[in-house]
Structures are given as C-alpha cells and as structure tokens.
Specification:
Bound molecules: zinc ion
Order of helices and strands: EEEEHEHHEHHHEEEEEEEHEEH
Helix content: 10-25%
Length: about 240
Amino acid sequence: VTTQLNDDVRVVPLSTVRDGQTMTYNLSLVLDPTHGPTLVDTGLPGQLELIDAAMAEAGLRVADLRRIVLTHQDIDHVGSLHDLVAASGARVLAHEVEAPFIDGTELPRFKRPQMLDRVPAAIRPVLEGVPPTPVDERLADGARLDVAGGVRVVFTPGHTVGHACLYLERTRTIIAGDALTAADGRLSGPSPTATEDMATASRSVARLAELDVDAIVCYHGGVVRDDAGGQLRRVAEELRPPD
Ligand SMILES: [Zn+2]
C-alpha cells in the first residue's frame, strides 16, 4: 500500500520474502501533473508488475513514467530498471560518477566475483543476467530537475562511489536512497556492512544535515517525519569523527 507523503511524493513500498524474512524497499514516486511522474529507484529484478500495481493507487501506470532516477548501482535499486524503461520509454538519470556502473561501462558491485560468491547458487544467474541500461542524463552535484517545484541533486558518496540523494525544495523532502536508514520513524546512518566507505558516507550525512528538512524517505526503513531535521543533525553528530 502506497502512502502519499505530501503533494509531491508518494512512497511505494515493495515487499519480498526471502528466507522467511520480509524485506521492504521504499521507492519514491515524484508527482508532477505538467512534467509527468518520476520514479526514484526500481526494486529487484522482476518487480515491474508490483510497481505497476502500486502506481495504479495513484491513478498511474508504469507506461506513464517520464523519468527514472537511480540513487546508486545496487541490485535492489536497479533491478527492474531495464524492464521499466522498456515498458515506459522513461529517461534514466544518475549521478555522473555512478552512471558507468549502471550503463555497463564498469562492473556494478553486485556483479563483482567476491559478491557473487557470497549469494546462494540459485540467485547467481539472476544477478549475472541483469542487463545494463543506458543512462540518458548524467547528473552533477547541485543539478536541479524541473519537476515538483524543483528537485536538487545532492552528491552523497560513501555507500557507493557515486551515490546521490534528491532534495525536493518545495516540500523540504530528502529522498535518501541508502545514505541513511530508518526504523519505525527513527533515523539512523547508513548500514555499516553495506557501505563501501563509512568516513565518506559520514561526511555526506553532514552535508545532508545542512538542508532545511521536513521529511526523509529512506529506501530501507521508510519515512521519517517526526523532527526530521533534528534527527538528521543528531545522526550527523553521531557519525562525526572525534577531533
Ligand atoms: Zn545500496
């Protein structure tokens, strides 16, 4: 069931069960009646139908998508990208540092041998079979997308080298990808086990904490709305290295 966070953002949780554990990914749909809907991140491979059903709650179809922004290269973010683009013709946007890992110029980390060796044998061909997808627009830090009153790209490396968040100016909402996590409305830093470079990731959180924030959508953990700005400053302080 999707949630209308504010006038501009609808949060689309996709749940899958793996080893008896339910995993939920929180995609974001940025709505704009003039410029059309934008999807942020795309779930796992094979989740197009789920995304289509979720979009129907907003009176939309996958075919209506005009652009897809990827926060980063990981499998649970790019999984259904190829299918969604085929079904919609949406433009694909990602930060310029991350784009080569999405368009196949560089090996994404889910296809690195040391990652493939760690997954169950049945999952391996699924990961290997994820096709790269061309990136139509390479975003730089501070780039502004002309949707939903203005959406700014905030370069937040650390979880991966080219991770980026989105900041919606009108609703003061951060779409955080994996730069932050949450549980039951309480904000935390990025997952230490899944983050490539915690020191860099911590500096990225400090950058986010400079923004004027009313709401944060974490891909893992969902929405943080209660004193979002205060919670973000607390997390940034907790991650700050001792002088
Ligand atoms: Zn990730």
